[in-house]
Amino acid sequence: MAGLLLEAGGGSKRLQIMVAPDAVAARLAQEVDIVLLGADRITSTGDVSNKIGSLTVALGAAHGKNVQVVVASDVDKIVAPGQDHGPTERHPASEITAAWPEHARQALGDKITVFGEWFEWVPSNLIDVYISDEGVLDREKVAEFGKHIALMQQQIFKGT
Known about the structure:
Helices cover 32% and strands 16% of the residues. The protein is an alpha/beta fold.
C-alpha cells in the first residue's frame, strides 16, 4: 500500500509514510493530519463500528493538534434508526487457538478464555467527516441516509 500511495503522490516530497506496529497507533495519531478509518457499520447518529484498535486511534487523534478523523465507507453501511448498534459479533476461540501448537492447546484446554470480539464502536463525536460513494457527509447527512434506508426497508418489507 505504501508503494501505491507514493506512486499516486507523483513523487511529492510532502508525502511521508511510516510503518509502525499497532501498539503505537494512538501515540502516532496525535502527530498526523488525518486518521483514516473504514467502517463495517455506521449508525444513523454517526457512530462507526470498525476493527478493534480504531477507538484507540480516534482517541489518540483527539489529543493531537488539528488531526481530523475521517471515515471512508459506502453509504450502504449506514443503518436505519433503531437498528443502530445491533448485536456484538463474536468469533470462536479457534480463530486464535488454531495457530497454536497442538500441545499448547491441550495443555491450556479450558484454563484460558480467548477474547473473540474483532469490532468496536467509535462514537460520532470523535469523527470529523465521512467520505462515501455519495460524497462528503456530515452527521446530519448520515442521519438523512439512515432515514432514507428506514423508508426503503419499510416499502420493501412491509407486510412481512
